[in-house]
Structure formats: C-alpha cells, structure tokens
Design brief:
The chain is α+β, with helices and mostly antiparallel strands. It contains three helices and 14 strands. The chain has a seven-stranded mixed sheet. A four-stranded antiparallel sheet has the order 7-4-12-13, with no helix packed on it. It has a three-stranded antiparallel sheet with strand order 1-3-8, with no helix packed on it. The termini are far apart.
C-alpha cells in the first residue's frame, strides 16, 4: 500500500520532522499554543515592567515634592522664628508700686581704658502714673555696694510713665562724673571731698536706680528710686596684657576705696 500524504504528516508530527509543506502545517498546529503562551508571558512581563517603571517614577516625583515642601517649611519656620534676644535671660529688679527696672551690660569684660556701658529698661505694671527721666543723670549708681551720684552736666526731660508704659535702651555709662559722698561726721569742719568712681582690675557688681516721681502727692511731688537687677562685669589691665605674650591675667581682688550711703 502506498502511503498517503496525510499519513506521512501524522507520522512526521510524531517524530518532529516532515517535508517543508507538512512541517509548516505541523509547526502551525503544534507551535501555535506555545507561541500564544510565550506571547502572553512576554506581554505580562512587559506590563509588569511598565507598572514597575511607573511606580518608580511616581515614587521619585513624590519624594522630590515632599523634599521641596519640607525644605520650604523649614525655610519659612527659620525666617519667621524670632531673633534671640539678650533681654530674655536678664531678670527685672524688684518692683516699687508696680514700677520695675532692668539693667543690661553691653558686654561683660572691659579693659581699664574703656568706659563700661549699659542699657536700662523701665516699665510700669502698677495702677498709678509716674514721671521719669530717660537719662542717667537723675539716677543713682551702685558699684560693689558703694553708691555714686552724678556730678556732671544735666539735660533732663521728663517722660510720662502711665500704667502699661515701657521705656527701653536708656544709656548708662561708668566714669569719673559718678562720685561717692563720704560720711560727714564732724560738722564743724568742711565736708570731705567726693571720691570719683574708679574701677580696679577684677569683678564688679553694678546696679542702677532711676528716679521715679509721683506728682499726685501734695503739696510736693514725691521722688522714689527704683533699684535694678545686679549685673556683673569684669575689668582688666590691657597694659599688663600687652606685657604678657600669653595673655595671662593676674587675678586680683577688686578693691573698695570708699563707702557711700544707700538710697
């Protein structure tokens, strides 16, 4: 019996070889399901890759956006934060009828040829109105427990100090125009001379008391002195520093040359 074409094709399909025409039909018949599976796998893989790329892009974009927002928030917070103030660490003195005073040193260390300077703040948190002077001339200065009065020129202008009012940065400076009055015990003799302020090298405690006037007291207005908080400064000899290359300073105890009466 002579084999037919269909029988040859069936035999070739079983043994994976055939003529070109038969092989083509067999490959289509046999290979089509495998190709469809492969195409589906490639399609799924391609879809997964695109999804992964989209997810990565999404994460990058949101990360950049979150970083930009955080940076902007931090910049705004820094720009809106209040500047640190030296006033925040300085306490006020004890109030007198609601009026209190605060003294702040411009710096804490001074050479002996420098004039130590300060800033004075006055506030009224009481219920009565007063008057004060926004200058140091009418006040009293205490250095290491010794009281000094101003003996220089005066240029006084009264300022109204009602409840709730504050005055800031009134200049106060140390110098020879501040003089201490010695005790005058023998009234038959001339009063002793006043002693000008002179700071020795070492640490010193400074307080200031501005004058507060109550004009409601009759027949004569009443003047009070409101004492500030104590402020510590240190003075040193710059001539000694120049003589010592290492900048070493010999420790000395601050001397007190005189005594005065408290206000």
């Amino acid at each position: 019996m002579q084999p037919t074409l269909s029988s040859v094709c069936r035999a070739a399909a079983q043994f994976n070889f055939c003529s070109s025409e038969c092989a083509g039909r067999v490959s289509v018949t046999v290979g089509s399901p495998q190709r469809r599976i492969a195409e589906r796998f490639r399609s799924a893989s391609s879809g997964a890759s695109r999804a992964a790329r989209r997810q990565t892009t999404y994460m990058k974009e949101h990360f950049v956006l979150a970083f930009a927002v955080a940076s902007l928030s931090l910049t705004q917070a820094c720009s809106q934060a209040p500047a640190p103030s030296s006033n925040a660490v300085v306490l006020w003195g004890e109030p007198v009828e609601g009026v209190s005073v605060r003294l702040r040193a411009d710096k804490t260390s001074w050479a002996n040829n420098e004039r130590a300077t300060f800033k004075l703040d006055v506030r009224n948190q009481g219920k009565h109105e007063f008057y004060t002077v926004q200058s140091q001339e009418s006040g009293r200065l205490e250095v290491d427990g010794v009281w000094y009065d101003w003996t220089g020129g005066f240029d006084l202008k009264s300022s109204w100090l009602p409840p709730g009012r504050e005055y800031h940065d009134i200049p106060v400076s140390l110098g020879i125009n501040w003089k201490a009055t010695q005790a005058w015990r023998d009234k038959t003799q001339a009063p002793p001379p006043q002693i000008p302020l002179k700071l020795l090298a070492g640490k010193h405690t400074i307080r200031f008391a501005p004058q507060i006037r109550d004009n409601t007291v009759k027949p004569k207005p009443q003047n009070n002195y409101v004492l500030s908080n104590p402020v510590e400064i240190e003075t040193w000899s710059n001539l000694k520093n120049l003589a010592e290359p290492d900048g070493a300073r010999a420790e000395t105890n601050p001397g007190r040359e005189n005594r005065g009466d408290s206000p």
